[in-house]
Design a protein that fits this description.
globular, 2 domains, alpha/beta, binds beta-D-galactopyranose
């Protein structure tokens, strides 16, 4: 309830800010793909918030293709945008788009995923991705009993800077529990090799992510999980603790584990609060997700765009190193969602209506 009223007051603030400063300013928004519910969510939330705030803006999708992303950005620059809000397909490749925008005098706001390898990122609105990973770790630890529990690791796309931050957050919680014998890693030699190291370098993380990446793709997640279970011994099955990196891949992985007769139970993590995963959580088919309230991220992005359009500097609460500069940023909080709090976090908060789900208590 508190979150919802914070949200309403944010919307109101946006309306006031927009009416004074933004009548003719336009914003270009570029999102990575329509293949994932996550980004459709962002699009829908953007459209309604922009309408409320009376801002003219265009949302384009990049079809998971950096070349398409670049041409989207060029189209928007030609249309005279003043602020670009870009969620990159590939954090490094997007530097070229950011550079083109900066050259045209357009302010660049990285949205959700950081743009790396360029000085031309003016601000970064995001969620606290380290906490997303830490919530996964905490959940799995909370379900583990005794020693030697089977741990399966999966990760996002190596081209997405967030995949590293999520993994680092998870590792910060899981590694001490691997070191003390609570968990035994089943499916990554690279992770086993590094299991005594509390903090990993980017290269070390890359070596693990390279082995267990889903590429944010449910088909990749499915075939990886299938081959892991084909190789696993009976002793490596039983109860499985699965670090699955987002809802779409979590459902794919959970389905594979559910089909294996030697798996008694699989605890699975996720993020994004996809509608299908909320139903999976209600039905006990996915154990948890992390709600990243896209209403908050959208409001932050619009507020940032308005601030830039007035020639002012948005307030940062943190910086993220993108390999070239410390990018000023505002990460927002995330909420772990399990069967225990799904109604409060998802329905009572106004995020989704109860009518979308069955069996909600
Ligand atoms: C991440 C994003 C997640 C998830 C994933 C796959 O960068 O933060 O919410 O959707 O990409 O697109």
């Amino acid at each position: 309830m508190k979150k919802f009223s914070v949200f309403l007051s944010t919307v109101f603030t946006l309306m006031v800010l927009a009416s004074s400063a933004f009548a003719q300013t336009t914003v270009g928004i570029v999102l990575p793909t329509k293949d994932e519910e996550r980004w459709i969510q962002d699009q829908n939330r953007f459209q309604s918030a922009l309408k409320t705030a009376g801002i003219s803006a265009e949302v384009l999708f990049s079809e998971k293709d950096s070349a398409k992303e670049k041409s989207n950005v060029e189209t928007l620059i030609t249309k005279g945008i003043k602020v670009l809000v870009l969620c990159p397909v590939d954090s490094a490749s997007a530097a070229a788009s950011a550079d083109a925008a900066a050259k045209a005098g357009v302010k660049v706001v990285a949205y959700d995923r950081l743009i790396t390898g360029t000085k031309n990122v003016d601000f970064y609105v995001t969620f606290d991705s380290f906490s997303v990973g830490a919530e996964w770790g905490k959940y799995l630890v909370s379900q583990a009993k005794g020693k030697g529990n089977n741990l399966y690791l999966y990760a996002g796309a190596a081209s997405d800077n967030n995949a590293f931050i999520f993994f680092a957050g998870a590792w910060s919680i899981l590694q001490p529990k691997i070191a003390d014998g609570t968990f035994k890693i089943v499916n990554s030699d690279a992770a086993i090799k590094l299991q005594k190291k509390a903090e990993l370098t980017r290269e070390e993380e890359a070596s693990i992510i390279g082995q267990v990446t889903t590429n944010w793709n449910p088909n990749d997640a499915k075939s990886k999980a299938e081959s892991h279970l084909t190789k696993a011994t009976k002793a490596q099955k039983g109860i499985a603790y699965v670090l699955s990196p987002n809802d779409q891949t979590a459902r794919a992985i959970a389905d594979v584990f559910a089909k294996d007769k030697d798996i008694k139970k699989a605890y699975t993590t996720g993020q994004d609060a996809d509608k299908a995963s909320i139903q999976y959580i209600i039905d006990g088919k996915q154990s948890m997700t992390v709600l990243k309230d896209t209403r908050v991220l959208v409001a932050d992005a619009i507020k940032t765009a308005i601030t830039f359009s007035k020639g002012e500097t948005p307030e940062k609460t943190k910086t993220y190193n993108n390999g070239v500069i410390e990018v000023p940023a505002k990460p927002s909080d995330v909420t772990a969602v399990t069967q225990a709090n799904v109604k409060a976090a998802i329905v009572d908060s106004g995020y989704y209506p109860a009518s979308l789900f069955t069996g909600l208590k």
